[in-house]
Design a protein that fits this description.
CATH class of the largest domain: Mainly Alpha
Largest sheet: 2 strands, parallel
Radius of gyration: 18 Å
Structural class: mainly alpha
Number of strands: 2
Number of helices: 8
Helix content: 55-70%
CATH superfamily of the largest domain: RNA polymerase sigma factor, region 2, helix turn helix motif
Shape: globular
């Protein structure tokens, strides 16, 4: 089996600058290390916490099934699987609308130690981010989530999405432009 490392284990650049822990090839270790990032990504992509939990579980089930075939940094592979599952789930939900983006994601993923005032502000901000993400087309939303919210490099996002680094840059530029226009309109509405 190849070496398994991640951004957290290496230098922050997706490279390994030290010994890879012995347990890095262990499914439980990888699950513990990457679960929250994948759950957050799926939650932001779908806007539905319960669906995100299911997609995260399916992503790690696929990792378990394919561990013997994978080597290197597993995180881009996990994001690619999660991204494909999330796109399919969103597409299927459009065909059979049941849940909406308005689910209380913030209540499930927020820090419960915050006071009521800060928790309310956090929930309001999360609702705004969800509305913003809802307005960005999926092909741009996924690159925005990967690069800006999950801190993947352009090269890592390109591997996840199966596109060129240049295409990642173009999509990210367009996503940010859509977001900036929406934020400007929201700001005008508040004034």
């Amino acid at each position: 089996m190849g070496t398994w490392f991640s951004r957290e284990q290496g230098s922050g650049q997706g490279t390994d600058e030290g010994a890879v822990p012995e347990e890095a090839g262990n499914f439980e270790f990888l699950h513990e290390l990457h679960r929250d990032r994948i759950l957050n990504y799926c939650c932001r992509f779908t806007g539905d916490f319960q669906l995100a939990e299911e997609l995260t579980q399916e992503t790690f089930l696929r990792l378990y099934r394919h561990m013997d075939k994978l080597s290197g940094n597993v995180l881009p592979w996990l994001y690619r699987v999660a991204s494909n599952l999330a796109k399919n789930a969103v597409r299927d939900r459009r065909r059979r609308p049941a849940a909406s983006w308005s689910g209380d994601i913030g209540a499930k993923v927020s820090d419960r130690s915050l006071g009521p005032h800060l928790l309310a502000e956090q929930r309001d901000l999360e609702a705004r981010v969800s509305r913003l993400l809802e307005r960005i087309p999926a092909r741009y939303r996924e690159v925005l989530l990967l690069c800006d919210l999950q801190d993947l490099s352009y090269d890592e996002a390109a591997r996840v999405l199966g596109v060129s680094r240049t295409n990642v840059g173009v999509r990210l530029y367009r996503a940010r432009r859509i977001a900036a226009r929406w934020i400007a309109r929201e700001k005008e509405a508040w004034e």
